[in-house]
């Protein structure tokens, strides 16, 4: 998602990505794209993409209640790929 956003803005993600702000509470450079991670308690799969501006934000959230969800997805992906034909990428 970060690569798509950077590309749409005509930026190189490697140049504008900010991954850590420990101890820094000021404004981020407006041309940067910020990423943050939080791990807490027994939460197994909660992911939120937030697009924020002054006074508003849009959030896209995915929540998985069990690690089995990810295992099932891996099995489905393996099954699908095993039925694909060889070819150029």
Automatic annotation (TrEMBL):
This is Dihydrodipicolinate reductase. One of its GO terms (molecular function) is 4-hydroxy-tetrahydrodipicolinate reductase. Pfam families: DapB_C. Its EC number is 1.3.1.26. One of its GO terms (biological process) is lysine biosynthetic process via diaminopimelate. Keywords: Oxidoreductase. Residues 14-87 form the Dihydrodipicolinate reductase C-terminal domain. The keyword Transmembrane helix does not apply. It comes from the Bacteria.
